[in-house]
Design brief:
Layout (H helix, E strand, L loop, with lengths): L1 E4 L1 H4 L2 H12 L4 E4 L7 H6 L3 E4 L6 H8 L5
Parallel strand pairs: 1-2, 2-3
């Protein structure tokens, strides 16, 4: 099961971390809703967070970052 929450909607960073800690006890993975670059550290600092939503509008950027140059 995955719970996808947005820190700005649920009450801020502290509340997002409280929610993540609470659901971790039930084996629920949390996913940060939307790619807010100033909130990415939350995923890295939260043991139950293993996913990060990347919206379609960033796919071209993601594709360039993942592109393996030809040798």
């Amino acid at each position: 099961m995955i719970l996808q929450t947005h820190a700005a909607v649920c009450g801020g960073v502290s509340e997002w971390r409280r929610i993540a800690a609470m659901v971790a006890g039930f084996g629920v993975t949390v996913c940060l809703h939307w790619f807010d670059d100033h909130l990415v550290h939350l995923v890295a600092a939260t043991p139950s967070a293993r996913l990060l939503e990347i919206p379609n509008s960033l796919w071209p950027v993601q594709a360039r970052l993942a592109h393996k140059p030809s040798s």
